Amino acid sequence: MDQIVIKGGRPLNGEVSISGAKNAALPMIAATILTGGAFVFQNVPNLKDIDTICRLLADLGAKTEFSGSTARIDTTGLDRHEASYDLVRKMRASVLVLGPLLARLKRARVSLPGGCAIGARPINMHLEGLEKLGAKISLAHGYVEARAERLRGGEIFFDIPTVTGTENIMMAAALAEGTTVIRNAAREPEIIALADMLNQMGADIRDAGTTVITIHGVKSLQPVSARIIGDRIEAGTYMVAAALTGGKIRLAGVDPSHLKPVIHKLREAGAAIESNDTVITVEGGGAIRSVDIKTLPYPGFPTDMQAQFMVLMSVAGGLSVISESIFENRFIHVSELRRMGADITISGNHAMVKGVKRLSGAPVMATDLRASASLVLAGLAAENTTHISRIYHLDRGYEAIEKKFAALGAVIERVPSV
Ligand code: EPU
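A: This is the predicted complex of the input protein with EPU.
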């Protein structure tokens, strides 16, 4: 298996172009299931997870074609309703096909995702929401089987805001008869991006981006062309890299308003940040201050940035408490960071991070995407060499990560397996 090898300790400087957001592209590609026709997407990131959703669509009978960052998806011939275990186990977000399959084909059979490295991650709220819209759901042989001759509007109250759950219900409700109200909806920018696309297709979705989303069902939808928004988590990762290595990085291609909590915490930690509507500049170099973090649903501090921020705190000037409130097991990077010299103790969902002077390079590996990104950051800041294995996790969510860091002055390379 390939490794990433980093010789750390250099400040990173220059400009980086942020790719399209994985977590916006996935539901938007799933939304093509809702109607037959030719869709075009621009700014699609070249990632494993995007391959996986496209393979899933091809399995269902769609045609998919890539050229650079443009994806063409033709769902005219889509007529199968099953998402296999093989694809769902590769990527939990495959469950995003459930709502649209049910709306278009009136039935769906989707493998139940198992637990994953960061937590149990059930999909009960997706299923309860679809039942509220009139679907009959059963679980058999590890699959969710859903049927609905006719979806009708309903009122859904999520116990906790769920991102893909909100997306699944928005897609199913777009073609339901009558009005659906989602209360305690997730408010992530990716939800707004999906609602914008669905509305462009002819749906009537109001107030996406707030906690109460209203969807007036329509009879039919049309294919569209859409552009994927910039990836706020990829951007946040490069922003931490600037603060961590004492460099200066200019980021283009992401909306700074999606990064408010990250910008706020990085400033508290001592980074200088300037931004206009399209560009963010982050400069480190001064003392890194310890700050506390608690992950929360948007617009709170994102759980997808927790591991990366922990690396920054591991070389800060004092004690930082990092609380993870979204996933129950999202500290898997801690034991690897400890092997690189970080002083971190865990108590329940809190990590106490006592800043050390310097991290030291080591062979490490991780079992989750953002944990892997945190190890790349740690390697960039550490003295000597860090070898990161199991990097297929990185390829799921970071486009050309070693090339982008190398262009900023990092000594980093992908070493193919022998
Ligand atoms: N939850 C339930 N029941 C459900 C659904 C969720 O209990 O039916 C719980 C989850 O276990 C978790 C919380 O609700 O404790 C929130 O999870 P959510 O459903 O919002 O997560 P998700 O939709 O599965 C998306 C992102 C994740 C990101 C989370 C939180 C996509 C494709 N994935 O997952 O992204 O961490 O929201 O912001 O949008 C990543 O990109 O690395 C990643 C894991």
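The pocket of EPU is lined by residues 23, 26, 93, 119, 121-126, 160, 162-165, 186, 303-304, 326-327, 369-370, 397 (CB under 6 Å). The mean pLDDT is 96.
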